Amino acid sequence: MPPFLNGSGRVGRLQYFGVSMAMVFALFISMQLFLTTNPVTGEITDFHPIAVIPLFLCVWVGWANSLRRLHDLGHNGFYMLILFIPLVGSIFSLYMLFGKGENRPNSFGPVPGMPTQEKLTEQREERHFEQVGAATDPDASYLNEDGSFNMDGLFK
Fold first, then answer.
1. Pick from 10, 85, 89, 126: most CB atoms within 10 A?
2. Which of 78, 103, 100, 82 is closest to 91 using CA atoms?
């Protein structure tokens, strides 16, 4: 499942804002496409049932995005219930947008945008092999027939 549909992990402030704005834009476009309104009164005169699909997707992505943002702030998903309290929910949504996430890995995952320890180790090994010259030539054989190490092709 793509990360923006999954509620696990963490998301930083910028990505949270970007996904939220993309959802608002998608809802605006879908309303323009699937709802017909009276130009004089502004009443909805025709509703296409297919409009439920983008609405459902935006609600799902919004839920997952907010949950991942709460994880970055160090809170669990139950804090999303605060968003339903009038006025308090508005202030809490500002906290979710502008609050600084935890600078260290927490129980919900690594810091967003920071490479994991495995990725750092992999990058370090790649640099080492590039410097040494080993494992860059897939055709080279570094073992002799008797199993001893062949030093001839190691440093080219």
1. 10
2. 82
Q: Which among 82, 87, 53 is positioned nearest to 67, based on CA atoms?
A: 82
pTM for the complete prediction?
Answer: 0.66
Which residue, 61, 76, 71, 63, is CA-closest to 11?
Answer: 71
> What are the residues whose beta carbons fall under 8 Å from the beta carbon of 77, sequence distance 6 or more?
7, 67, 70
Q: Which of these, 20, 13, 27, lies nearest to 56 by C-alpha position?
A: 27
Distance CA 137, CA 155 (A): 11
Local structure of residue 106 (DSSP, 8 states): B
- Residue whose token pair is 């998301």: 11
Give residue-wise pLDDT tens across range 3-29.
Answer: 667 777 888 899 999 999 999 999 888
DSSP 47-60: E-GGGHHHHHHHHH
Q: Measure the CA–CA gap between 53 and 37, rounded to whole angstroms.
A: 19
Residue 121: alpha-carbon gap to chain centroid: 22
- Buried b or exposed e, range 23-32, using 16+ CB within 10 angstroms: beeebeebee
